[in-house]
Write a structure and sequence with these properties.
By secondary structure, this protein is of the alpha+beta class. The chain contains 5 helices and 5 strands, in the order ααββββααβα.
Length: about 220
């Protein structure tokens, strides 16, 4: 039974680790590309500005009840254009975020990293406690509650970052026949894990209270 529990814990840990590494990886790639292009003397100022203004946007056809295939793309297999609708594209637009917006985004990003890393540390401590057969205690209840809160904070931070990016792009960019969307910009994995951790924590708490009440009546 403990082996199965450990396997499940490892799976959850991998999911948490993936959420951290994925964000870190893409942010790192962006920073690396920006630095490399910035120091490349062969690239003119306009090209550098275009690279620095790259944004990923999600698109949804405005008329979902009608013909959603309002565009076309070239099919190299048969040399013909086929109906299509864009769902995501990478564009270079100057969103002109204010200094306050940049500071807020940076603070939210830092808070997100701290919350997720702290959540991973708490989860590891929880696994260690379980392997020592020290499972049903108030310390683990507190760990689970904090873990749940931190994961929810991580989700809220991710949502706020996506919303700020969406709001800034929406002010300066639009596509005929499409509406900008926040779909796929925020994943609910951390939210689901956070709520699950809070539920498990309350189950543990109820069990401990019942145990304490039984010990008092004996």
């Amino acid at each position: 039974m403990k082996r199965r529990l450990n396997i499940l814990c490892v799976i959850v840990l991998l999911v948490l680790g993936y959420s951290v590494l994925e964000t870190t990886y893409y942010v790192g790639l962006g920073i690396k590309a920006g630095i490399e292009k910035g120091f490349d003397s062969k690239i003119d100022a306009k090209a550098k500005e275009e690279i620095s203004n790259v944004q990923v946007v999600q698109l949804v056809p405005k008329d979902l009840g009608g013909d959603i295939l309002i565009d076309s793309v070239y099919n190299e297999k048969n040399g013909e254009y086929v109906p299509a609708a864009y769902g995501q594209m990478i564009v270079s637009v100057n969103t002109q975020p204010s200094v306050l917006s940049r500071i807020v985004s940076l603070l939210i990003l830092i808070l997100n990293y701290v919350a997720i890393v702290w959540a991973v540390v708490l989860f590891i401590r929880l696994i260690v406690s379980i392997n020592k057969s020290d499972i049903f205690n108030w310390k683990n209840v507190r760990r689970l509650r904090r873990l749940g809160v931190l994961l929810i904070i991580g989700f809220v931070c991710t949502f706020l970052l996506a919303f700020l990016s969406f709001h800034n792009v929406e002010k300066v960019f639009s596509v005929t026949g499409y509406s900008l969307s926040m779909a796929d910009m925020v994943h609910i994995t951390s939210l689901v894990l956070g709520i699950s951790a809070l539920i498990v924590a309350e189950v543990f708490a109820i069990g401990l209270k019942m145990k304490e009440e039984q010990e008092l009546t004996i």
